[in-house]
């Protein structure tokens, strides 16, 4: 396998570990970028990007980053808090009056960002096309009753997070959520990151496909079993309502829509650059970065049915939980995306890390491929 890009020779072992991923015949394409103190020490890509395995992964190939998108959305919301356009601890209904319906009158932005609002799913079955209709989904969430008492415990809002936080951003900023997020995070840092992709960019988007035969870890198997046996449970509805959530990744409508929980498109460089921008103070003031990365939720996740730990829209490290550690320092923060893409920062070592793949693994938190790369990186530091 030909590995493209460059690396500092101190990180030769990381390059070798990246190349080793492609010894698995199922591995299609991937990219890896690591920045330390804002300097890029490694920027690699390899494999294939298209459905048929004929087009090479290029320097400008981008992919659906799934939930790696969430921290970009959270940072945008927190910038609006810094500007006085939103507040963390006042009711969401102050900005979005209809939201107060059905027992949601006291839910705050802080609760939405830390997955404590009780709104990870819709009970009423939505048609497949509703996924692409912003107002339809916002209206459905406006009418929804929380699944538990807001503020008491947490449950990951896999996709509803995008409409909930995104609608607040839209109301506070006057632009669509995707436009606001790109203007506030990607553009100032020069990142190749998009929420709502123009058709003219489709040619460089990697086709995403699942790997076969890998059942994943115990947490992944537990969630899969629940989804097969409990069709109306909160966990199942979180991922299957609308039913198009799990099947639309490669569709033009998915790429075009602005779903700031799940459909950001970018490359490993854009993930590493984003986290470098958080570490160097380009995106948030120190006080707000502390809010972003402070523990707000920890313990059994009502949606994922495994232990999770969150700040405000970012996942925090759990060093002793094998499926929930980024693999560097205990202060690491970031977010994995479904299937394996991962972005995070380790403030102690000033590391910003981005890994992007179009071969989806089955794990629901950290992907073993990314963790292995980080373990090798730790040995190089």
UniProtKB/TrEMBL annotation:
- Which Gene3D superfamilies does this one have? DD-peptidase/beta-lactamase superfamily (3.40.710.10)
| EC number(s) reported in the record | 3.1.1.103
Top-rank taxon of the source lineage equals Bacteria
Q: What class of enzyme is it?
A: hydrolase
Keyword set includes Phosphoprotein:
no
List, for all copies, the residue spans of the domain called Beta-lactamase-related. Answer: 18-363
Q: Which Pfam families match?
A: Beta-lactamase (PF00144)
Q: Which UniProt keywords apply?
A: Hydrolase
Q: Which GO terms describe its molecular function?
A: hydrolase activity
Report what the protein is called: Serine hydrolase domain-containing protein
